[in-house]
Amino acid sequence: MKLMHLSDLHLGKRLNEFSLLEDQAYILHQILQIAIQERPDAVIIAGDLYDKPVPPAEAVALLDDFLARLAKEQLNVFIISGNHDSPERIAFGSRLVASSGVYLAPVYNGTVAPITLRDAHGDVDIYLLPFIKPGHVRRFYPDEEITSYTDALRCAIAHMPIRNDHRNVLVTHQFVTGASRCESEEIAVGGSDNVDAAVFDAFDYVALGHIHGPQNVASPRIRYCGTPLKYSFSEVNHHKSVTMVELGEKGDVTISCIPLSPLRDLLELRGTYQQLTQRDYYTTLDQNAYVHVILIDEDDIPDAAAKLRVIYPNLMKLTYDNQRTRSHADFSQSVQVEQRTPLSLFSDFYQQQNGQPLSEEQAAYMAQLINRIWEVTP
Length: 378
What we know:
Number of strands: 19
Largest sheet: 6 strands, mixed
CATH architecture of the largest domain: 4-Layer Sandwich
CATH class of the largest domain: Alpha Beta
Number of helices: 12
Strand order of the largest sheet: 6-5-4-1-15-16
CATH superfamily of the largest domain: Metallo-dependent phosphatases
Shape: globular
Radius of gyration: 23 Å
Strand content: 15-25%
Distance between the termini: 36 Å
Helix content: 25-40%
Structural class: alpha/beta
Number of domains: 3
């Protein structure tokens, strides 16, 4: 059985105030052509269809057109909501569109029933688990001990009717411990959203969304396909692609990638103003690309952005890297905050402000408050 794994479309996204809708329409058309050529048994979209819970009308129309074209090709489509999506909006009309082969994950209600596809090797059960937090799961299993994202996923999976004699595929949208992040993703303070990869042991393939760089985590069968486009300059060196998964007999999984070519690439250029405005330099570059210029001149160049935009029409961002900007940087903040807990970070802040550490009672209260806030934050 052949699966096409996509995620994190982020339709409607703006990057440095530039609308990316044209770029997104271009890449979705390219993905559609790949789907028509490859004829997968299922197209999986693992969350973050939109960039905001309430997306612009143009983004909704773009997704509607993409799904309609996939359905016209009689391709099965499996979709979950991500942390950027409204699960209620994504789930709307799910029972109606399922007849067209488009399966939308319902809002999590404590149970996840599989959708079963069949091939020459037997049944493949596909489980659609949207982005969830511990509070979402604890609501339905109040007697279970659920204090972390790992606990939440373990509990949700434990209540799935998984058959070990079937090939099982999970589609979900979480941060699995060990994945490599970039600045365009939402990072939980202290890494409190980490999920241990061991919770996925029952599955033959886990189609993940949330991380923008394509990568395997812990095992080739647990995979982020990445975004179809570069959504920040921290992704400049990413190679975007579509992940294709071949499921043979149980335990036989083959993964390959089909590269994607954007309408406009992202470029990061570094040098003096004089260097970057030399004709011999800029004529060798893609003039259509979105550009971040980093000037290393010690003195600011008057109207630099306007002047550079004559040469680089899609200049998105201009920054300086020199003694002045480096002296303003607070290197004391270089500690990797995602490796520390929110309570640890708050404790340091409290001590700096008050000259004394948190008491045991204060620490216990803050731990409860942090957990409560983290669960309800959209």
